[in-house]
Design brief:
Elements lengths: L2 H12 L2 H20 L4 E3 L3 E8 L2 E4 L6 E4 L2 E8 L1 H8 L19 H73 L5 H18 L1
Antiparallel strand pairs: 1-2, 2-5, 3-4
Helix pairs in contact: 1-2
């Protein structure tokens, strides 16, 4: 199929030859411009166009057989997509209606891949939710443990303070008791003895 035949094929879908020609020209022009800039053009279900560089090398002229030095150059490269490859490998998987490379092509493999991706996404979401719940529970457990530890520490401090207060009170009571039990001073006795001695001296006189 050449360009003219391709336009005729598109004419039945787009309604007119001019519309088909303009659409094809616009698509080709956009692809060529982007690849020339060094950008990739990827069309889902069809393939990817890109620019690659080839290093300088030595070639051979097929007519004369002489060696020729080929300079470094850049060339366009097309890499077909998975859906394109699968359809070419098994033409029976071509859809009867719709686009062969579009979303409507339920050619077995693409649909399965989409389903697999959705299932994987659901599993990932479930795992994330479980991880969040586990993290929340762990954080709550840590907070509870910290509160209990703080409560125990506070209670221990209060108990220690009470014990210290009780010990101080006991010491004070012991001091008072010792003070009460101490014997009275003997000063009055000395005075009494002195008085008795003075009385004896007076009597002798």
């Amino acid at each position: 199929m050449n360009k003219a035949e391709l336009i005729e094929s598109l004419e039945s879908r787009l309604g007119s030859k001019k519309a088909a020609s303009d659409a094809l020209e616009a698509v080709v022009d956009a692809i060529i411009r982007e690849v020339a800039k060094g950008n990739k053009v990827g069309i889902t279900g069809f393939g990817t166009f890109e620019k690659i560089s080839r290093a300088a090398r030595t070639g051979r002229n097929p007519r004369t057989g002489t060696t020729v030095r080929i300079k470094k150059t850049a060339v366009p490269k097309f890499k077909p997509g998975t859906a394109f490859k699968s359809v070419v490998a098994d033409p029976r998987s071509l859809p009867k209606t719709g686009n062969a490379g579009g979303r409507a092509s339920a050619a077995g493999t693409p649909a399965k891949k989409t389903t697999t991706k959705k299932a994987a996404a659901k599993k990932t979401t479930a795992k994330k939710a479980t991880a969040k719940k586990a993290t929340t529970k762990t954080a709550a457990a840590k907070k509870t443990t910290a509160k209990q530890a703080a409560s125990k520490t506070t209670a221990a401090k209060k108990t220690t303070a009470k014990k210290a207060t009780t010990a101080a009170a006991k010491k004070t009571t012991a001091k008072k008791t010792v003070a009460k039990k101490a014997p009275a001073k003997k000063a009055p006795a000395k005075k009494t003895t002195a008085k008795k001695t003075t009385a004896k001296k007076t009597a002798r006189r």
